[in-house]
Design a protein that fits this description.
591 residues; Na+/H+ antiporter like fold; Rossmann fold; 3 domains; six-stranded parallel beta sheet; 6 strands; RCK_N
C-alpha cells in the first residue's frame, strides 16, 4: 500500500516543536530562561548543528511576524497615563542609557571594525537589553514592583521603543542595491501618507470596528480582526518602504486607550509567543559555530566589554536620576546583557548587506553569552550583598514600590458595578473595569469611566487586565453561570485575590456561600431595607423602633440563609413572617 506524501513542512514542524519542548524546559530548569532554550534548540537542529534544517532564512522570514506582534503588544502598553507617570525614567534615564551606551560602544568597536556603519549597528544593538530575559529575572524574584524593578522596566520600555528608529537607521545606512525608486520628496511623501493613513484609520475606525464585532461577531472573528489590525498596519508601512514593526507599534499605541485593549492583548499573546520562539530558533540556526570557535578570544573580549560598559553606565545613570546605590547596583546587574532586538537589528543589517555573516554570527554569539552570564552575575551580587548586610556594611534593601496602591478589578459594569466603583473611586482606589456589553461600555465611557471589553472566564484576559496584582476581584455580572466559571478561574490562577460577588437572589447567595467566596450581597437586599425604612418613617413609626426592626430583619435573614444551606431553599420560611418583639417598658420599683 503506497503512502501519501507528507504535507509541506509537516516533518519540519514536528522537529521544531519537538526540539523546543525538550530544550526550553531544560534551559529554564538550568536557570537560563526560555530565550536561551530556543536559541540552543535552533543551534542544535540548524545547518551548523545536526543539519536537520538547511535553509534557516525561510523560517526566519515567517518568524519575523513575531517581532511585529511584539511591537504591537508593546504599543498596547503605552497608555498616556502610564507614560506620564514614568516619563522621567522612560524618556530621561532610558534615552540617556541607549544613546550614551550606543555611542561609547560604537567608539570602542570602531577601532576593530572595518566600517563605522558596522560599529554603529553593533554598538547600538548591544545597548539594548533583553526585555523577555530581564522581566523573567524580576518576576522570578518578585521584584518587578520594587523601585528598582520599575526603573529597570522603564529602561526596557524605552529600549523597546528605540528599536523602531534604529531599524529605520539601518535601512538608511544600507548600501543601495540599485537605482533609486524615485525622488527623495516622493519617497518622503509616500512615507508620510502611509503613517497618516494608519493614524487616521486607527483613530476613527478601530473602536467602531471592534464595537461592531462584539455585537455581531464570534470570538474567533475578534481574534482575526486583531491580527488584521497588527499585520495590516505593518503591511501598509512596509509597502511605503518603512519598518513593519513601526506600523504595528503605531497601531498598538492607537488602541492603548481602547476598551478592547486587554482582550486584544490576551488573544494575540499566544501567537506572539509562538512566533517569537520560532524567531529565536531561526536565529540559532544561523549561528555559525565554526566562526565562534575560530574567534573565541574576540568574542570573550566582546562579552567583557559589553557587560562592563553597560553595567557601569547603568549604575552611574541610575544614580544621577535619583536611585539609591543599592537600586543602581541591582539595575546594573539585571540589564547588562544584550537583547532579542539585537538579533533583529543584526539580521536586518545582514539582509541589507550592511555587515557580513561572520560579523553577524560573532555579534550574536556575544549577545548569547551575555545572556548566559547575567543570572550568574545576579546570583553573585545577591551573595555579596547578603554577606555585607550580615556584617552591617550595607543597609537592608526595602523591597516595596513607593507608588504601589491596592487595586480592584470590577467584572461587570452595570448599575451595580458602577455604584461600587463610585465608592472605591471616592477613596482614590485604582480600578480596572471589564464588561462584555459593548453598549454598556460606550455608555460608561461617556460618563468618564474607563471600561474594557473582556471575557472574565478567561485567565489570560484577567491576567492582562491586572488580576494577578488586584487585591479584590469584584464579580458584579448578572449571569450566575458566568460568575461560577469566573470564580473557578480566579481560584485556579489568582490565589492572592479576594473574591467579592453580587448575588442575584437568595438561591444564588446560597451557592456563593457554599463556594466560599470572601463576600457576597444580594443586589436588592440593601435597597429593600432602605425602602422599608422610608415606608415605616412615612407611617410615623418612631426612629428607635425602626432601628430595632432593621436589626431584627438582618439577623433573621442571616438565620434563614444558614438554615437554607442545609435544609433547602424554603427552609426557615416561618422565620421570615415573625414580628419583631417590642421592648417591655421598665417600671420603677415604687410603682
Amino acid at each position: 500500500m503506497a503512502t501519501e506524501a507528507a504535507p509541506p513542512f509537516l516533518l519540519e514542524s514536528v522537529v521544531l516543536l519537538g526540539t523546543a519542548v525538550i530544550a526550553v524546559p531544560l534551559a529554564k530548569r538550568l536557570g537560563l530562561g526560555a530565550v536561551l532554550g530556543y536559541l540552543g534548540a535552533g543551534i542544535l537542529i540548524g545547518p551548523h548543528g545536526l543539519g536537520l534544517f538547511r535553509n534557516a532564512e525561510t523560517v526566519l522570514q515567517v518568524s519575523e511576524l513575531g517581532v511585529v506582534l511584539l511591537l504591537f503588544l508593546i504599543g498596547l502598553e503605552l497608555t498616556p497615563s502610564r507614560l506620564w507617570h514614568m516619563r522621567r525614567d522612560i524618556f530621561g534615564l532610558g534615552t540617556a542609557q541607549v544613546v550614551l551606551t550606543g555611542l561609547i560602544l560604537t567608539a570602542l568597536i570602531s577601532a576593530l571594525a572595518d566600517s563605522w556603519r558596522v560599529a554603529a549597528v553593533a554598538g547600538f544593538g548591544m545597548a539594548l537589553s533583553s526585555t523577555a530575559f530581564a522581566l523573567q529575572l524580576l518576576q522570578e524574584r518578585g521584584q518587578l514592583q520594587t523601585s528598582y524593578g520599575q526603573r529597570a522596566f522603564a529602561i526596557l520600555l524605552l529600549q523597546d521603543i528605540a528599536i523602531v528608529p534604529l531599524l529605520a537607521g539601518v535601512a538608511l545606512m544600507a548600501p543601495g542595491s540599485g537605482e533609486p525608486k524615485g525622488p527623495l520628496w516622493q519617497e518622503a511623501g509616500t512615507a508620510v501618507a502611509a503613517i497618516g493613513s494608519v493614524l487616521v484609520v486607527g483613530r476613527y475606525g478601530l473602536n467602531p470596528l471592534f464595537s461592531f464585532l462584539t455585537r455581531w461577531g464570534a470570538r474567533e472573528v475578534m481574534l482575526i480582526a486583531a491580527l488584521l489590525v497588527a499585520l495590516g498596519s505593518a503591511s501598509v508601512l512596509h509597502l511605503a518602504g518603512l519598518s513593519m514593526a513601526l506600523g504595528a507599534f503605531i497601531a498598538g499605541v492607537l488602541l492603548a486607550e481602547s476598551s478592547f485593549r486587554h482582550t486584544l492583548e490576551a488573544d494575540i499573546e499566544p501567537f506572539r509567543s509562538l512566533l517569537m520562539g520560532l524567531f529565536f530558533m531561526a536565529v540559532g540556526m544561523t549561528f555559525a559555530l565554526d566562526v565562534v570557535f575560530a574567534s573565541w578570544p574576540v568574542i570573550l573580549a566582546g562579552v567583557v566589554l559589553v557587560m562592563s560598559v553597560k553595567g557601569l553606565l547603568l549604575w552611574a545613570l541610575a544614580r544621577i536620576f535619583g536611585a539609591s546605590n543599592t537600586d543602581a547596583l541591582r539595575i546594573a546587574t539585571t540589564l547588562p546583557q544584550g537583547g532579542e532586538f539585537a538579533f533583529v537589528l543584526f539580521s536586518s543589517a545582514a539582509a541589507l548587506n550592511l555587515m557580513n555573516q561572520n560579523d553577524k554570527s560573532g555579534l550574536i554569539a556575544v549577545v548569547i553569552v551575555t545572556m548566559m552570564m547575567t543570572p550568574l552575575v545576579c546570583a553573585a551580587y545577591d551573595r555579596i550583598a547578603a554577606r555585607l548586610r550580615a556584617r552591617g556594611v550595607a543597609p537592608e534593601v526595602v523591597e516595596s514600590f513607593e507608588e504601589a496602591k491596592a487595586s480592584v478589578l470590577i467584572c461587570g459594569f452595570g448599575r451595580f458595578g458602577m455604584v461600587a466603583a463610585q465608592m472605591l473611586s471616592a477613596e482614590g482606589i485604582a480600578i480596572t473595569a471589564m464588561d462584555r456589553n459593548a453598549r454598556r461600555i460606550d455608555y460608561a465611557r461617556k460618563l468618564g469611566y474607563k471600561v474594557y471589553y473582556g471575557d472574565i472566564t478567561r485567565a489570560d484576559v484577567l491576567r492582562s487586565a491586572g488580576a494577578d496584582q488586584a487585591a479584590v476581584i469584584a464579580l458584579c455580572v448578572e449571569r450566575d453561570d458566568i460568575m461560577r466559571k469566573a470564580i473557578d478561574c480566579i481560584r485556579e490562577n489568582f490565589h492572592n485575590a479576594r473574591i467579592y460577588c453580587r448575588a442575584t437572589d437568595q438561591a444564588h447567595a446560597i451557592d456563593l456561600t457554599k463556594l466560599g467566596v470572601d463576600f457576597h450581597v444580594r443586589e436588592t437586599f440593601e435597597s429593600g431595607i432602605l425602602f422599608g425604612r422610608a415606608a415605616l418613617e412615612a407611617l410615623a413609626i418612631p426612629a428607635d423602633r425602626i432601628a430595632t426592626i432593621e436589626e431584627d430583619v438582618r439577623q433573621r435573614d442571616s438565620e434563614v440563609l444558614r438554615l437554607q444551606l442545609t435544609g433547602g431553599l424554603f427552609a426557615g420560611a416561618d422565620i421570615l413572617h415573625a414580628r419583631t418583639p417590642r421592648k417591655e417598658p421598665k417600671h420603677s420599683e415604687d410603682a
